[in-house]
């Protein structure tokens, strides 16, 4: 029980770290090219993960890692560019929609059945998205990009399951390929400028703690708790993201925004509860 409690605290800590990246990246990319930020962040993470997982790496993991790297590149790329045009709080809650999108992506790739609860969760998520985006029929540019990011992360989650037979070494390869793709794009489109000051600190924080160490801790400790319990702990990420954005950036949602956030979280909890029932 002590080991499970320790693992749960570690996973909750990961959620806090991931939630904290939203205001950190929001400030960092204000005057710095966003894909260059991702490129350097994931290069730092790749070097550290190479050290942590070098004994787990095999040649047959390279192509699956590349496919996963593409989904991460699209997810993080759309997310961080979207952050330039929306609030850190909106980004945190909208990104979390990957939980709701995942069953539908799983149907496309794994042919897993879509259940009634999935459709209910999707409807709640759409209503929540409508409210959190200031109750407009047309989403703002940043929110739209973040939806694409959430969909990309849903593909990444399903493909991790699909490629699980290749072992935990693919955790490194997906981060490595994300770094390669981001660097190539940044060289062409942004010139790959050198980060300084607070931007460099943000890159080191997100690269070391929110990427390399968080992914390594996830691989090490998540198997020690039930999958549904881990998912519930991860679902705290947008809540921490908003609270930290409120404290550091002074961001507050409108009444409709908070109602939208509640609907999004309700949609996520429906999915997590369904997962718990399926495993019992």
Automatic annotation (TrEMBL):
InterPro entries: Diverse_Substrate_Transporter, EamA_dom, EmrE-like. The chain crosses the membrane at residues 35-53, 65-85, 91-110, 119-138, 144-163, 170-188, 200-219, 231-249, 255-273. Pfam families: EamA. One of its GO terms (cellular component) is plasma membrane. Its main location: membrane. The keyword Coiled coil does not apply. It is a multi-pass membrane protein. It is found in: Cell membrane. The keyword Secreted does not apply. Residues 7-133, 141-270 form the EamA domain. Keywords: Cell membrane, Membrane, Transmembrane, Transmembrane helix. PANTHER family: EAMA DOMAIN-CONTAINING PROTEIN, OS03G0707200 PROTEIN-RELATED. This is Permease. It comes from Pyrococcus kukulkanii.
């Amino acid at each position: 029980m002590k080991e499970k409690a320790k693992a749960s605290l570690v996973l909750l800590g990961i959620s806090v770290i991931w939630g904290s990246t939203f205001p950190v990246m929001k400030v960092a990319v204000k005057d710095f090219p966003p894909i260059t930020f991702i490129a350097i962040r994931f290069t730092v993470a790749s070097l550290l993960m190479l050290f942590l997982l070098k004994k787990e790496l095999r040649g047959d993991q390279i192509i699956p890692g590349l496919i996963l790297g593409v989904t991460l590149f699209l997810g993080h790329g759309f997310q961080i560019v979207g952050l330039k045009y929306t609030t850190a709080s909106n980004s945190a809650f909208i990104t979390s929609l990957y939980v709701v999108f995942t069953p539908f992506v799983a149907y496309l790739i794994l042919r897993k059945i879509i259940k009634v609860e999935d459709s209910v969760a999707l409807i709640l998520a759409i209503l929540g998205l409508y409210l959190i985006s200031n109750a407009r029929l047309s989403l703002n540019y940043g929110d739209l990009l973040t939806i694409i990011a959430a969909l990309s992360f849903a593909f990444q989650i399903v493909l991790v399951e699909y490629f699980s037979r290749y072992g935990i070494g693919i955790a490194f390869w997906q981060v490595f390929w994300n770094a390669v793709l981001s660097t190539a794009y940044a060289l062409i489109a942004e010139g790959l400028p050198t980060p300084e000051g607070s931007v460099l600190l943000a890159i080191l924080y997100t690269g070391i703690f929110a990427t390399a160490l968080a992914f390594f801790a996830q691989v090490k400790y998540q198997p020690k708790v039930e999958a549904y319990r881990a998912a519930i702990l991860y679902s705290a990420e947008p809540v921490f993201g908003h609270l930290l954005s409120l404290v550091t950036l002074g961001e507050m949602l409108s009444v409709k925004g908070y109602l939208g956030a509640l609907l999004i979280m309700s949609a996520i909890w429906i999915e997590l509860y369904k997962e718990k029932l399926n495993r019992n």
